[in-house]
Structures are given as structure tokens and as C-alpha cells.
Specification:
Number of strands: 0
Order of helices and strands: HHHHHHHHHHHHHHH
Number of helices: 15
Mean pLDDT: 84
Structural class: mainly alpha
Strand content: under 5%
Largest sheet: none
Shape: globular
């Protein structure tokens, strides 16, 4: 009996040590997750600040005669074209190389281009630098998506994703104020130098802080503790790129992403023009509408992630739960566009105008976050970057369509016609999601 008790005591001590080891690894995993997420949040905020740094300096460059409106158009087009191409290529590269290295190199090159931009006044060199800047920018989000999928459980993947996208909103809100202060007191060149230096320094921080996957730090895989909402039977780890391209689900998400990104870009680029030309608003009042879009987008993106995680884990439905949440957001988007087109007048209070902006921002940034989540989590890890690249390319097509094509509609008919078109597209995306639930990847049945 004494030997049995000693044996049981020994086993209990070993079990205790084993439990301590497991708990220690869990704590280390959480510490690494916080460090990785913090580096990504700050790093992507620097990406966003850097991408817009020249835009903040444009009024000063125009006033000083260093640049013309047509040159600005060329520089912006160079950046947008390169960004659209590289974001697609970045998604593919994130499946082929270290996401840590990809993220850090892109941020460093982007910062270096901004630093060089600040030291020259040659328009041709500016255009070339901003093309390279746009190309480097495309490495940012695909690497973020890859790292998030490796480090966080599918049970709360949507929440982490949406909070990370909010870094862009935070940067978009704070960086104009910082840039304005520096430009007023020290000049446009100093503003670009600060943006470039922040990006280069942050690139070094992310290179040291980020880790490609938990296994490299001898930590447990957090993605194995929960089954994703998408059925593994439909997208096994053996899926090929050809099968991915033939997936009707991927093209459904791509079309919906194109529609909402077109609407978001149109309101961001043309919303002020509509309010000033059609409703007689002042530039300050029109600018407050654009600010309200960003504010709504911050809360809408986070809300979308939290809601979809909750829905995906607790609600059983025919079709993809995250897409159904996106459809509800798009209903609000269509309603907001209708209200903007029909009910707002030159006499409507500014509070109401800003309120409509908040609703529209939330209802558009919510689905933008959801479609990226769905594309990344639905398909196997070795193709998640490519899947996100495809839908991101569709989104960029939507952004391009929001430029000259919508301006042509406005010139031919009116800005009201533009809003009617966007409203119709938003409603159509809702019908598309609801009517194609048969091709949604269904959640795995819950275990009783």
C-alpha cells in the first residue's frame, strides 16, 4: 500500500509538472500573440500614413508652384496602378515566402521612397518614386492576413482581423493632423521625412518582433483548437491553385467585394463634390461628411468582426454566416445611399448629414472587413494569401470603376444618378448573397 501511495504521489507530481508546462506554453503563446498583433497594428498604421503622405503635402506643393494639377493626377495614378498590381502579387508571394520578411521589406522600401521624394523637386522622379512606393505598399495587407491566420484561432479570427483593419482608420484620422502641424511649422519636406523615417524604423521593429508561425517559437498551434466555419471537406489541404480559381464561392465574394469597394471609394472621392455641387454645402461641411465616413468605418469594421465571430460559432444556418452578416450591412448601405440621394436637402442640418456619413461608413467598412476574412479563412493555409489576392484585385477594380466611369455618369446625368447606381449595386449584392447560399461553404455540424 505504501508503494502504491508513493507511485500515485509521483504520478500526481508528474501530472502537475505537465499541467504547468502546458499552462506556461499557453501564457507564452498569448504573449507572442500580443507582440505580433501590436507590431502589425503599428506597422500597418505606418503603411497607411506613408501611402497618404504626399496627398497631405499637395496643397502646399500647388501653392508654391512646385507641382501642377495634371502632375498630381499622374503621380496618384502611378501609385494606384502599382498598388493594385502589387497587392495581388503580394497575396501570392505571402504563400511562397516569409510573411514577416515581406511585410518588413515592403514597409522599408515604402519609407525609403518617401525619404527620397522629400529631397527632390523633379516631377518625373516623383512619379517613378510614387510608382515604386505603391508597389511596395501592396506587400502590407497580404502579409497581415497570412500572419493573422497563423497566429489566431478561427473562433476569434474575425475580431482580430477587424481590429487590425481599424489601424488604417486610426492612422487616417491622426496622420492628417500631424502632417498639417509639421507642414505649417517646418515645411512639406519635413512632413515627408518624418513619415519616411517612421516607416523605416517600424520596418526594423517588425522584422525583429514578428514570427511567421507559432511552431518557429516552439508554441502550440492556436488554429487547431477550433474548426473553422468553412467545411474542410470542400477545401482540403490538397487544393490546387486551379481549383481555387474555379471556385464559384471565391467569385461570389469577389463580386460582392468589388461592389462595396466601389461604393466606398466613390463616397470618399466624390462625396464632397456631391454635397457642394448638389446641396450647396461649404467645403468644411463637405469635409466633415468624409470624416464621418472614417469614424463610422472604424466602429463598423470592428462590429462586423465581433458579430461574425459570434454568428459563426453559435448560429446554424444555410449558407455562410459571415456573408449573411455582410448582407445585413449592405442593406443598411443601400438605405443610407437612398437617404443621401432622396431626403437630404440644402436645408438639412449638418448633424443629420454627418449621421448619414457615419451610417454609410459603418455599413461599407463592415463588409469590406468581412469579405477579406471570408476569403482568407475559407481556403487552406497554403492558398489563403492567393485567395485574398484575388478578392483584393476585384476590390481594386471597383476602386478604379469609382473614378473616371462614375465621373462620366455624373457628367452625363447627375450625381444623383451616381448614387442611384451605387444604391442599385448594393441591393444587388444582397440579393446575390441570399440567392446563392447553395454554393456557400457550410459550417461543420456541431457536436452534441
Amino acid at each position: 500500500m505504501k508503494m502504491v501511495r508513493q507511485s500515485q504521489k509521483s504520478e500526481g507530481m508528474q501530472g502537475g509538472r505537465g499541467g504547468s508546462v502546458v499552462m506556461g506554453k499557453e501564457q507564452r503563446l498569448q504573449s507572442y500573440q500580443r507582440a505580433v498583433f501590436g507590431a502589425l497594428f503599428l506597422g500597418y498604421a505606418c503603411y497607411t500614413y506613408n501611402r497618404k503622405s504626399v496627398s497631405y503635402a499637395i496643397p502646399t506643393l500647388l501653392a508654391s508652384g512646385l507641382i501642377t494639377t495634371s502632375t498630381i493626377g499622374i503621380i496618384n495614378s502611378c501609385q494606384n496602378t502599382a498598388y493594385a498590381i502589387s497587392k495581388f502579387l503580394g497575396g501570392i508571394l505571402s504563400d511562397k515566402m516569409s510573411a514577416r520578411v515581406l511585410f518588413s521589406i515592403g514597409l522599408a522600401v515604402s519609407g525609403a521612397c518617401t525619404l527620397i521624394f522629400s529631397r527632390t523637386e523633379n516631377a518625373v522622379i516623383w512619379a517613378l518614386l510614387w510608382f515604386l512606393n505603391g508597389f511596395a505598399q501592396g506587400a502590407g495587407w497580404p502579409a497581415c492576413a497570412k500572419l493573422l491566420k497563423k497566429w489566431f484561432s478561427p473562433a476569434n479570427f474575425g475580431t482580430w482581423w477587424s481590429v487590425l483593419t481599424a489601424s488604417s482608420n486610426v492612422s487616417g484620422s491622426l496622420s492628417p493632423l500631424l502632417a498639417a502641424y509639421v507642414i505649417i511649422n517646418h515645411g512639406w519636406s519635413a512632413s515627408l521625412i518624418i513619415s519616411g523615417l517612421l516607416s523605416v524604423v517600424m520596418a526594423g521593429v517588425t522584422l525583429v518582433t514578428l514570427v511567421d508561425e507559432p511552431a518557429l517559437a516552439h508554441l502550440p498551434d492556436p488554429t487547431t483548437s477550433h474548426t473553422p466555419t468553412s467545411s474542410k471537406s470542400e477545401c482540403s489541404e490538397k487544393m490546387t491553385a486551379r481549383q481555387l480559381a474555379a471556385s464559384p464561392f471565391l467569385w461570389l465574394v469577389s463580386v460582392c467585394y468589388l461592389i462595396v469597394f466601389c461604393s466606398k471609394t466613390a463616397l470618399a472621392d466624390w462625396g464632397q463634390v456631391f454635397l457642394m455641387e448638389e446641396l450647396g454645402r461649404s467645403q468644411m461641411q463637405a469635409s466633415s461628411f468624409t470624416s464621418a465616413l472614417e469614424t463610422g468605418g472604424f466602429f463598423g469594421g470592428i462590429l462586423a468582426g465581433v458579430l461574425t465571430d459570434k454568428m459563426a460559432s453559435t448560429v446554424s444556418m444555410r449558407g455562410n454566416a459571415r456573408l449573411m452578416v455582410a448582407a445585413s450591412f449592405m442593406v443598411a448601405c443601400a438605405a443610407g445611399l437612398h437617404f443621401l440621394r432622396v431626403f437630404l436637402t440644402p436645408h438639412t442640418s449638418q448633424m443629420v448629414v454627418s449621421g448619414v456619413g457615419v451610417v454609410l461608413g459603418a455599413s461599407m467598412f463592415g463588409p469590406i472587413s468581412i469579405y477579406g476574412i471570408v476569403a482568407s479563412e475559407t481556403f487552406p493555409a497554403h492558398l489563403s494569401g492567393t485567395a485574398h489576392a484575388v478578392v483584393a484585385l476585384a476590390a481594386n477594380v471597383g476602386a478604379v470603376a469609382a473614378g473616371w466611369p462614375l465621373s462620366w455618369v455624373a457628367r452625363t446625368w447627375s450625381w444623383g444618378a451616381v448614387l442611384l447606381l451605387l444604391e442599385t449595386m448594393a441591393a444587388s449584392s444582397v440579393l446575390l448573397i441570399l440567392s446563392t447560399s447553395a454554393i456557400h461553404l457550410r459550417p461543420k455540424p456541431k457536436m452534441s
